[in-house]
Amino acid sequence: MSQTDESVPHVVILGAGVIGLSTAHVLSEKYPSYKFTVVARDLPEDVDLNSQAWASPWAGANWSPIGGYEEKKYKRELITFNKLWDMISSGLIRTLPSRICYAEPVNDAKFWYKDIVRDFRILDEEEVPSGAVAGVAFTTVSLNPQLYLLWLRNELNARGVIFLRKRLYSIQEAAEIAGPQGVVINATALGARSLIGVEDTAVYPIRGQTILAYAPGVQEFLAHPLGLSSVPTGEATYMIPRPAPHGHVLLGGTFQEDNWNLSVDFDTARDIWRRCLQLAPALNDPETRILGHNVGLRPARRGGARIEAQWYSLPLESEFLPPPAEGAEKYDFLVIHAYGFGAAGYQGSWGAAEEVAEIFAEHFKLVA
Ligand SMILES: Cc1cc2nc3c(=O)[nH]c(=O)nc-3n(C[C@H](O)[C@H](O)[C@H](O)COP(=O)(O)OP(=O)(O)OC[C@H]3O[C@@H](n4cnc5c(N)ncnc54)[C@H](O)[C@@H]3O)c2cc1C
Ligand SMILES: *[C@@H]1O[C@H](CO)[C@@H](O)[C@H](O)[C@H]1NC(C)=O
Ligand SMILES: *[C@@H]1O[C@H](CO)[C@@H](O)[C@H](O)[C@H]1NC(C)=O
């Protein structure tokens, strides 16, 4: 391939959440001569704006088992766990002793993740907190999402990746930014529901209300129970200590499917506090302070996350768009989708990015 400007492939990553940024990170490392642009409505520096329009600033975020075994998820989350574990010395990631409790007896099938995490074991009866009948302990990792997103952004800046703030309404616009030889990576999460092109109605929110606390006494990830709608009313109690700032712990929470409400509900907040106190007496300390209340929408997808390539015929024809200009050139355009990670976007991020990179390598030969 010659190195004139037009012949350098242009990769446009739509979305600057943990999925878009991690994908940009992996691809820009593998293909340093290509041109990369991240296009998003919300950007990492917006974490101070408290925008709830995207999920990534509001995560816990740790690696924890969610749902049952699934082959692709397993691979993604294994890759990510190991990568995060290797990053501990950077200070962005901490190791986290953990206990998950269950209200019912458990069997081995629940422990599909036992070789991913470290030090996995089943709790002795006297270690199980009151109100639970069984539990497991292991060592996992956590990170502070807002600091982590800024780190990813800085890495990409240093590699010359361009950031463009723009809200897109259709894939046609993304294709125009990329140019006919370009590729678009679609990491728009819940935004994928409404973009004109292929509106994906399988995408839905799982509302998560949380409390950010200063609670230096809490040094363990505790959860009871954890998972998607394991409780019909959507309560899931968990505490995620972060590597930084000192003493910061995220207290949760709720798992409310199809609930788009972004307001903090104070009855829910009181209930979260009560449930966490019951699970972690260490919270009951004169030093503990509430720093804030948050609501975030986990961008889930019925059928699981979608990582796959799709060719579009452009210009796009849609009942929601004006007809294409007469004589507009017709061409096929490649989009690689990567959205719908629900409650597990951080813990699947590096694996998802690798999966996108594999698809990219396969298809790019066709385009180049
Ligand atoms: C309370 C809570 C706790 C969580 N805890 C954890 C945890 O402990 N571990 C874990 O792994 N995960 C956790 N998650 C889930 C995690 O936050 C998400 O899975 C992850 O952030 C999804 O990342 P994303 O990049 O797919 O989407 P997002 O972060 O939502 O990013 C989407 C991006 O696309 C952009 N975009 C969307 N539509 C458009 C458009 N039309 N035009 C331009 N740009 C657009 C947005 O601006 C944004 O930049 C939690 C989530 C919540 C809410
Ligand atoms: C991203 O995927 C969603 C769901 O298929 C779709 O609605 C949207 O148009 C896609 N965006 C692009 C730029 O391909
Ligand atoms: C959203 O939640 C708030 C707080 O609980 C509540 O007052 C409001 O009525 C809810 N809005 C909708 C549309 O349900």
TrEMBL record:
One of its GO terms (molecular function) is D-amino-acid oxidase activity. Its cofactor is FAD. GO terms for biological process: D-amino acid catabolic process. It comes from the Eukaryota. It holds the Pfam family DAO. FAD binds at T188. SUPFAM superfamilies: FAD-linked reductases, C-terminal domain (SSF54373), Nucleotide-binding domain (SSF51971). InterPro entries: D-amino_acid_oxidase_CS, DAO, FAD-dep_OxRdtase. Residues 10-358 form the FAD dependent oxidoreductase domain. The keyword Flavoprotein applies. Keywords: FAD, Flavoprotein, Oxidoreductase. One of its GO terms (cellular component) is cytoplasm. Belongs to the DAMOX/DASOX family. This is FAD dependent oxidoreductase domain-containing protein. The lineage of its organism: Eukaryota, Fungi, Dikarya, Basidiomycota, Agaricomycotina.
